[in-house]
Write a structure and sequence with these properties.
Chain A: It is a lipid-anchor. Chain A: Belongs to the small GTPase superfamily. Rab family. Chain A: One of its GO terms (biological process) is endosomal transport. Chain A: Pfam families: Ras (PF00071). The structure holds two protein chains of two kinds. A six-stranded mixed β-sheet of chain A has the order 3-4-1-5-6-7, with helices on both faces. Chain A has six helices and seven strands, in the order βαβββαβααβαβα. By secondary structure, chain A is an alpha/beta fold. In chain A, 30% of the residues lie in helices and 24% in strands. In chain A, a hairpin with a 2-residue loop joins strand 3 and strand 4 (57-66). Chain B is mostly helical. Among the domains of chain B are: 97-228; 238-363, Ypt/Rab-GAP domain of gyp1p, domain 3 (Cyclin A, domain 1, Orthogonal Bundle). In chain B, helix 6 crosses helix 7. The longest helix of chain B is centred in the N-terminal third of the chain and has 27 residues, at 34-60. Chain B is globular and about 55 Å long. The chains are: A alpha/beta, B mainly alpha. Chain A binds chain B through residues 1-2, 19-20, 33-41, 43-49, 62, 67, 69, 71-72, 74-75, 78, 96, 156-157, 201, 205-206, 208, and chain B through 1-7, 129, 132-133, 136-137, 139-141, 143-144, 171-172, 174-176, 178, 233, 235-237, 240, 256-257, 260, 263-265, 270-271, 274-275, 278-279, 283, 326-328, 330-331, 333-334, 337. Strand 2 of chain A pairs parallel with strand 1 (4-5) of chain B, so a sheet runs across the interface.
C-alpha cells in the first residue's frame, strides 16, 4: 500500500491523559483534519501517522493514542517504549484532569525513556465559558517541570497544528544534537540509553 | 476554515464485496433468473418458518430442553422470540416454565431495590469519579443509533453500569463494558415494540414499567455474561493477556505465513487484539451483527463463550490474511483498527462462526496442536 513515505526521521509520540479530555480528536484533527463529536472511547491503543517538514527534513510522526481510564495503565505503559515525545493532555474545563497531570508525569518517568520530550496540552480551549484551569497556572506548572505548554481546541482546530509541529521540532533538535555529539552517522542518531529512534523502513524483512 | 465535523461511522464509508452475499439469494456469482431467485426466496422463508416452529415447540414445553435450545440457537434465533431465548440461555430464566414469572418478579424487584439503595439520596451521594466515567462513555455509546441518543435510555444504561460496578469492586467499571450492555438492552426493548425498528423507536411511548423491566433484565444478563469473563477486567487484565497469547499461538498454527509476516513487520497482537477481547469484537462489527453472533455465543454457554470467542477472533483475523500479508506495519495496524465490516449481514457472521467452529473442532480438543512446532 503506502510506499509513498520517504522520510528522514520516524518519531514515535504518545498521547496520554485522563479519559474524555480529547486525545483521540487531537489525533484525528492533526492526521486527518477531522473532528468527531461522538467518537467512541479508545480501548487499548489506536494509531495514526502524519509526515511534516522540519528544517528541510521529512519527519514522519507515528502517534499512538491511548485509553485514558486508570484500569488500562498496566497495558498502555508498554506503548511508552521507544516513544520520543508525549503529549500530556488535560481538559481546561475539568479541574480533575489537570490535577492528574502529576500522576501521568510519574507514569512517564516510570515507563518512558528519560529523554522523552513532554508537552503539556490544555485542550477544549473553545469552551471559554466553562474554563476551570487558568492558563497562567498551567504555564507556571509547565515551566517548573521543564515541559512546554500550549492550549488547543481539536474542535475549532486552533493550535493543534502548532502543538504537533512544536513537539516534533523539539524532538528533532534533541535527536540531531545527540547525533552530532555521538560523532558520525554510522548507526543513525539515537537517544542516550541506546534506543534507536530512527527506523529504517527500507530494511529487508527477516526471512522465516 | 477547512474544518470537517463528521459524525458518521468511518466504517460505513468503506464498502465490502461480501455485501453482495447478504441478500436472500444464495450462491453469488452464478447468474440467476428472476424465477429461480423467487424460488430461492420461498425456500428460505420456508426454512425460516420451520425453524420458528421448532423454537415455538421447544418453548411451549413445561420444561425447556436446554440442550435442544442451545443446538437450535447456535444457528440463529428468530428476532420475535430472541428476548425469551436469550434469558433462558443466560440462565436468567429457569427452564421450568412454572417458576418463570415468580423468578422474573423477584429478580426485577431485587434490581429496583439496588437502584433505590444507590440513588434515593440523589446524585451527590454517588462515587463522582465513577459517575463521570460512565457518563462520558454512555454519551459516546452507539452514537450513530438514534435510540442511544435518548436521555431516558442513556440514564437507564448508566444506572445498570453504576450498580454493576459498585457490586463488583475487584474490577469496577472498565471502558468497553458499556458496549457489552447494549445487545441485551436492545433485544429486550425490542420485545416491547415488536413491530418497530427498535433503533429508531419513540421511547416516550414505552411505559415506565416496561423500561424498568428492560433495565433490570439487562442488568442481570450483563452480570451473568461478565461473571464468565471477569478477569478480563481486573487489574492488568490477565484474562485478556492470556487470550491474546493464545490467539497468537493459534494463528501460528493456522496461518504461519501471516504470523511470520506480523513478526517481520513488528506487529504485536496486543496492538489490535486487545480491543477484540475487551469488547468481544463489538467494536469491529455492526450492532445487529453482534446480536446475531451472541445467539451462538450464548448457545456455547457462559463457560464456553470466551473459549469460542478466541476461535472467532482467529477466523476474523485470517479472513483478511491475503490483504494483510501485502501490507507493512502501519497499514496493518490501521486496517485492523477499522476492518471493512460495515456492510456485514447475518450471512457474513454465520460464515465467520462456522469457520471459528471448524478451527475449534480442529484445535480445541487437542491442545498439543497449539504448541509451536
Amino acid at each position: 500500500m503506502s510506499k509513498d513515505d520517504e522520510y528522514d526521521y520516524l518519531f514515535k509520540v504518545v498521547l496520554i491523559g485522563d479519559s474524555g479530555v480529547g486525545k483521540s480528536n487531537l489525533l484525528s484533527r492533526f492526521t486527518r483534519n477531522e473532528f468527531n463529536l461522538d467518537s467512541k472511547s479508545t480501548i487499548g491503543v489506536e494509531f495514526a501517522t502524519r509526515t511534516i517538514q522540519v528544517d528541510g527534513k521529512t519527519i514522519k510522526a507515528q502517534i499512538w493514542d491511548t485509553a485514558g481510564q486508570e484500569r488500562y495503565r498496566a497495558i498502555t505503559s508498554a506503548y511508552y517504549r521507544g516513544a520520543v515525545g508525549a503529549l500530556l493532555v488535560y481538559d481546561i474545563t475539568k479541574m480533575s484532569s489537570y490535577e492528574n497531570v502529576n500522576r501521568w508525569l510519574k507514569e512517564l518517568r516510570d515507563h518512558a525513556d528519560s529523554n522523552i520530550q513532554i508537552m503539556l496540552v490544555g485542550n477544549k480551549s473553545d469552551l471559554k465559558h466553562a474554563r476551570a484551569v487558568a492558563t497562567e497556572e498551567s504555564k507556571t506548572f509547565a515551566a517548573d517541570n521543564g515541559l512546554t505548554f500550549i492550549e488547543t481546541s481539536a474542535l475549532d482546530s486552533s493550535n493543534v497544528e502548532p502543538a504537533f509541529q512544536k513537539i516534533l521540532t523539539e524532538i528533532y533538535r534533541v535527536v540531531s544534537n545527540n547525533a552530532l555529539k555521538a560523532g558520525e552517522s554510522a548507526g543513525g542518531p539515537s537517544l542516550s540509553g541506546g534506543k534507536a529512534i530512527v527506523i529504517d523502513a527500507s530494511q529487508p524483512a527477516p526471512v522465516e | 476554515m477547512s474544518n470537517t465535523i463528521s459524525i458518521k461511522n468511518p466504517q460505513a464509508v468503506r464498502s465490502n464485496s461480501s455485501s453482495e452475499t447478504n441478500g436472500l439469494s444464495g450462491s453469488p456469482g452464478r447468474p440467476k433468473s428472476a424465477e429461480s431467485k423467487m424460488l430461492g426466496d420461498v425456500a428460505e422463508l420456508n426454512s425460516k418458518a420451520i425453524r420458528f416452529k421448532k423454537f415455538e415447540a421447544l418453548l411451549e414445553c413445561a420444561v425447556v430442553d436446554m440442550e435442544q435450545l442451545k443446538k437450535l440457537s447456535w444457528m440463529g434465533v428468530p428476532e420475535e422470540i430472541r428476548h425469551t431465548v436469550w434469558k433462558l440461555l443466560m440462565g436468567y430464566l429457569p427452564s421450568n416454565s412454572k417458576s418463570r414469572d415468580d423468578i422474573l418478579k423477584k429478580k426485577r424487584g431485587e434490581y429496583l431495590e439496588y437502584v433505590h439503595q444507590q440513588f434515593f439520596e440523589g446524585k451527590s451521594s454517588l462515587d463522582q469519579a465513577l459517575v463521570h466515567q460512565i457518563h462520558i462513555d454512555i454519551l459516546r455509546t452507539n452514537a450513530s443509533i438514534p435510540l442511544y441518543q435518548n436521555t431516558i435510555i442513556q440514564e437507564s444504561l448508566e444506572r445498570i453500569l453504576y450498580i454493576w460496578a459498585i457490586r463488583h469492586p475487584a474490577s469496577g467499571y472498565v471502558q468497553g463494558i458499556n458496549d457489552l450492555a447494549t445487545p441485551f438492552f436492545q433485544v429486550f426493548l425490542q420485545s416491547y415494540v415488536p413491530l418497530e425498528d427498535v433503533e429508531r423507536v419513540d421511547v416516550l411511548r414505552i411505559s415506565q414499567d416496561s423500561l424498568n423491566e428492560v433495565e433490570s433484565d439487562t442488568f442481570w444478563c450483563l452480570t451473568r455474561l461478565l461473571d464468565g469473563i471477569q478477569d478480563n477486567y481486573t487489574h492488568a487484565q490477565p484474562g485478556i493477556q492470556r487470550q491474546i497469547a493464545r490467539l497468537k499461538e493459534l494463528i501460528n498454527r493456522i496461518d504461519a505465513q501471516l504470523y511470520a509476516h506480523f513478526q517481520s513487520e513488528g506487529v504485536e497482537f496486543i496492538q489490535f487484539a486487545f480491543r477484540w477481547m475487551n469488547c468481544l469484537l463489538m467494536r469491529e462489527l455492526p450492532l445487529k451483527s453482534t446480536i446475531r453472533m451472541w445467539d451462538s455465543y450464548q448457545a456455547e454457554g457462559i463457560e464456553g463463550l470466551s473459549e469460542f470467542h478466541l476461535y472467532v477472533c482467529a477466523a476474523f483475523l485470517v479472513k483478511w490474511s491475503a490483504e494483510l500479508k501485502k501490507m507493512e506495519f502501519q497499514d496493518i495496524i490501521q486496517f485492523l483498527q477499522s476492518c471493512p465490516t460495515a456492510t456485514w449481514g447475518d450471512r457474513d457472521i454465520e460464515l465467520l462462526l462456522s469457520e471459528a467452529f471448524m478451527w475449534k473442532s480442529l484445535f480445541g480438543s487437542s491442545p498439543n496442536h497449539l504448541k509451536p512446532s
